[in-house]
Fold this sequence. Notes:
The chain is α+β, with helices and mostly antiparallel strands and about 160 residues long. It has a single domain (about 5-120), classed as Gcn5-related N-acetyltransferase (GNAT) (Aminopeptidase, 3-Layer(aba) Sandwich). The chain has helices spanning about 15-30, 40-45, 100-115, 130-140, and strands spanning about 5-10, 55-60, 65-75, 85-90, 120, 125, 145-155, 155-160. The strands form 2 sheets. The chain has a 5-stranded mixed β-sheet with strand order 1-2-3-4-5. Strands 6-8-7 form a 3-stranded antiparallel β-sheet, covered by helices on one side. The chain is globular, with a radius of gyration of 15 Å.
Amino acid sequence: MSTSVLVRLAVEDDKQAIWSIMEPIIRSGETYALDIDMSREDALNYWFLSNHEVYVAVEQGETQDNVLGTYFLCNNQKGNGKHISNCGYMVSQAAYGKGVANAMCVHSLCRAKEAGFKGMQYNYVISSNDRAVKLWQKNGFAIVGTLPKAFNHPSKGYVDVFV
């Protein structure tokens, strides 16, 4: 089932909604290599690093937007590698399967091109995150490398990570 979403730049008032998406994902320890005890302040500081453009995917309501997902766009490296972009995406568990991640992926690819990036690279995709792997491949990404047993998944043990 697909939901119609608008992707827009995040504003200060979105931070609580973004944290409500981030917290269960971080606490689960299943898809991001972040400290599962990370504080709200540290998590939002990470997401809103000065070199990150932060966006939210929203379902527009009559009185306020319902934030369904968030992503950041940044350069993957500095110096002579700054022409390649990187992103991080998180979707509200309530919005899984509704096309939110795809909408953000498509938006990020367009935004990266607009910003002058020559490509996009995902550095650390947990192999057991099947939904993400399938989505990235659907949108033209290829697995170019595998880091064997690089992520300690809380229930599956050590799993591979894709680049």
